[in-house]
């Protein structure tokens, strides 16, 4: 039965002919948009609208949300900036991003948060929010700061990061967790073990040593410590880029306090092959591990343990990544390739389209209490990722809009491709081209 706005009148946008994926399932229906929000589903195809898009043969998904990106601004703009990073996002079908605090200077004060929001205004192609980084110096104040507009919450680095953004001891970690109420995003690697094993990387001087240096136990110990403190403090935590089978078992038993992220690269690549093919271009933290761990991540995804897929987009220049290991920095771009890589997995039968939507739209909205995003429903933001499930493409470095200019998926054939990105009723990307000017807005959150 059609869901219509009670107030008649010309719509701003009408989507017709496409297969629309709503919480009720897939259905060919017409969607109406007014003032940036969905105003009706199942409307007559002749409903008056200023702009009409015929999406016959395409699927209309809720806007994809990438809840872990590093856009490097301020301080490292030769790698990426807010304009180029968000342009890459919309070219890949992503409608909103959460950006991480390990910039230079770090985003660890309200002033630094305001500075990023100011920089994004008129330059960000998609909607956005920014994490505040936890430190020993700001631990007592994060609870008061985390509810500021445009803040996606608090990020904790338990393992090595940029500048002061390292919370390695349990006392400081406990203080951060006890001091707020929003879900905390955590990079879980044990810093003591990383320091003790650094010689493995230095002596072998080959990127294939990366998962041996930053071994499974490094991740498992950190996750065990985090879960114990989350129970003690009563804080909800979101464990980022989980990489090991053993962690997934731990996290499955802690569902009262924890949510879980995996990345496309950990679901797609495996050691040792990725290091033989890509060298340090496969280097990231936590590392790409052998196939048994990749299969455990897929098993956890199928079992419902995984809540979110984030790209962990972390670009570095070609020159930087070409340095001898371990001088080469960790991280790889991914915001632009998240949708096509995961659609390739949909085409291969590794997950359903509905599960992909849950992990990239509904999941982030649920985990972070995002207001008005994450589903196609009346009253929600008119954010849509339009895809062609039949399109066959080859991912290529030349397609990458990130300033780094490369992707670990160069040469990878995929089936399924983002062909249009619509944010709050505005067509931002169509057929591989950005349209208009950047008009991204800060993401809103419920209860803050």
Structural overview:
The protein is α/β, with parallel strands linked by helices and 448 residues long. The longest helix has 18 residues, at 216-233. It is built from 14 helices and 19 strands. It has helices at residues 82-91, 110-120, 142-145, 170-178, 191-204, 210-213, 216-233, 245-252, 264-268, 273-278, 291-302, 318-321, 338-347, 353-368, and strands spanning 11-16, 19-22, 25-28, 31-34, 37-41, 49-54, 59-62, 64-69, 94-99, 127-133, 151-157, 184-187, 237-239, 258-262, 308-309, 384-394, 413-423, 426-430, 433-434. Strand 11, helix 4 (170-178) and strand 12 (184-187) form a beta-alpha-beta unit. The protein has a domain at 64-368: Metal-dependent hydrolases (TIM Barrel, Alpha-Beta Barrel), CATH 3.20.20. Helix 4 (170-178) crosses helix 7 (216-233), helix 7 (216-233) runs parallel beside helix 8 and helix 8 packs parallel to helix 11. The protein has an eight-stranded parallel β-sheet. Strands 3-2-7-16-17-18-19 form a seven-stranded mixed β-sheet, covered by helices on one side.
Shape: globular
Which architecture of the domain at 64-368 per CATH?
A: Alpha-Beta Barrel
Query: Biggest β-sheet: count, sense, barrel?
Result: 8 strands, parallel
Distance between the termini: 35 Å
How would you describe the oligomerization state of the chains in this entry?
A: single chain
Question: Which regions have little confidence, pLDDT < 50, spanning 5+ residues?
Answer: none
Number of strands: 19
Query: CATH homologous superfamily name of the domain at 64-368?
Result: Metal-dependent hydrolases
CATH class of the domain at 64-368: Alpha Beta
Beta fraction? 15-25%
Q: Could you say which structural class the secondary elements and strand pairing correspond to?
A: alpha/beta
Percent range for helical residues?
Answer: 25-40%
The radius of gyration over CA amounts to 21 Å
The name CATH uses for the topology of the domain at 64-368 is TIM Barrel
The order of strands across the largest sheet is 8-9-10-11-12-13-14-15
